[in-house]
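Task 17 of the worksheet. Students: predict the tertiary structure of the chain below and write it out as structure tokens. Keep your answer in the requested format; marks are given for formatting as well as content.
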Amino acid sequence: MKRSLSLILVFLIFVTATSCGGSGESTATTSSPSDGVGSTYYIGFMASITGAASSLGEPERDAAVMIQKQLDEQGGITGPDGVVHPVKILIYDTEGNGDIAVTVARKLIESENAIVLLGPSTSPPCMALIPVVQEAKIPMISMASSSEIVKPISERQWIFKVAQSNEHTSPWQVQYAKAKGLTKIDNLYVNNAYGEDGAAAIRETARAEGIEIVLEETFEAADTDMTAQITKIKASDAQAVLVTAIPPAAAIFTKQYRELGVDLPLLHNSGIGMQSFIDLSGASNAEGVIFPIGKLVAADALPDSDPQKPVLQQFISDYAKYVKNPPSQFAAHAWDSLQIVLRVLETFPEGLSLEEQRQRMRDGIENTKGFVGVDGVFNFGPDDHVGLSTEDVVLVRIVDGKWVYFPQEEW
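Model answer:
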């Protein structure tokens, strides 16, 4: 734990020194509203920058650094009273570990004056943070997928998320199978909150669509050999295989699936929407894999009438300016969560206490309507702490080592 916290603190100091122009300490600014500059707003940002889920956390970190640079260039944000407030995004690495996430969150809450927490990247650390966030009464916007992160809302009043839930993506897997006349499927998933949530959504949709699940199997996120599960797939009478997992396990499964000669259609969930999945699987093994994801990959192919199209194109353009790697859906999660928070901060008058800021942020997020983001068009409410729908999702197919938009007319 000491080693992990040291890495976290080193990274925080680097980011705040280079991107925020500060020392890494989150003490209040000495500026006063009389000179047109108000108190500094602190945003806690937690991502799996290292560890098994770094392929999610790194682009999320990059998007946060990009927005920090944009904020610095414009001097901060302006409140309704004309006061300009500097904003510092305090970036921490959770390493994909729930214990580290809890330690980091407590630091942000108790000594860093964070108004809101963004992240973590994956579902298990998010689940670990639920009691911490609820007790502290600080809003959190998760960047992970499991619907359990925000449900039941009666026990998650302070928690929101921007990633499409499995209830938005999993139905696309089943509906594609139905559209192709495939009535028997296998349901494979990683044994954690994300995988279980995806598997449950597949079960529910399959039942509604009259699709039979003939085999269900799990594997662990750290497994390197899925031969036993794939052997069972080969012995089943399934016509397609649906999977809910993220790399590296999702890539290992796909590689071994191909090497063992299974030729059934392979439908992954949105957790593989990153280049590392193709790299780890091998382009030839990933060829033909189909999966649902947000519209980022289809930005240029969308009709001009789609309200997301200009937002997606601007996001891609900005990302190319500030980040060397191409954007991913995970960078989109960070961008959306930060933009939602900044919109609410613009409504803050000067002089609110930290407790009032946190309460006002929570209420502001819940009342966000019609926000056109990269992940979709958000309409939060007291009964919906995700704000998205299946309409914010498209199917893509991997062709020649690249993601290709796969519209319904081509199914």
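Marker's comment: DSSP finds 13 helices and 16 strands in the chain. The chain has two domains: 2-164+311-389, 166-298+393-410.
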